[in-house]
Amino acid sequence: MEALTELQALQNAANDLNLTIHERLTQDKRKTVKIYFANRGNETVSPNLDYENLNHFLLGWRKCVNHLNFKISYPYEKPI
User: Fold this and answer.
1) What is the pLDDT of residues 17-48, one digit of tens each?
2) Nearest-angstrom CA–CA distance, 16 and 20
3) Contact yes or no for 34/44 (Cβ under 8 A)
4) Which domain holds residue 35?
5) Reduced to 3 states, what is the DSSP secondary structure of residue 44?
6) Is residue 13 part of a domain?
7) Given this model, what pLDDT does residue 21 score?
8) Which end of the chain is flanked by fewer CB atoms within 10 Å, N or C?
9) Separation CA 19–CA 61 (nearest Å)
10) Is residue 27 part of a domain?
11) Is the pTM of the predicted complex or chain greater than 0.70?
12) pLDDT reading at 71 higher than 80
């Protein structure tokens, strides 16, 4: 997948989570894998990860947010 397309795909996945995806710039010209990280406001919320691992991170973040929203809405019921 092309780097710009990867960044757009990650940003599309992060839009409803209020996260911004950035590409980590590196001075090492030998590295061919693009590295990304997620920000929420001015705070970095993810480690530096490649496309696939940041995608998994975003899925986990989404699951956590959904779980916390369910607990706040229904504090005495178990999540589905």
Assistant:
1) 999 999 998 888 787 889 999 999 999 999 99
2) 10
3) no
4) 3-73
5) strand
6) yes
7) 96
8) C
9) 10
10) yes
11) yes
12) no
What are the structure tokens assigned to 15, written together?
Answer: 């839009």
Residue 29 lies in a domain: yes
Residue of 42, 37, 72 whose CA lies nearest to 58 = 37
Written as six digits, the tokens of 47 are 């480690």
Cβ atoms of 48 and 24 within 8 Å: the answer is: yes
Q: For the chain, how many structural domains are there in total?
A: 1
State CA 32 to chain mean position distance: 21
Distance CA 67, CA 79 (A): 7
Please name which of 12, 57, 67, 13 lies closest in space to residue 37, comparing C-alpha atoms: 57
pLDDT value, residue 29? 79
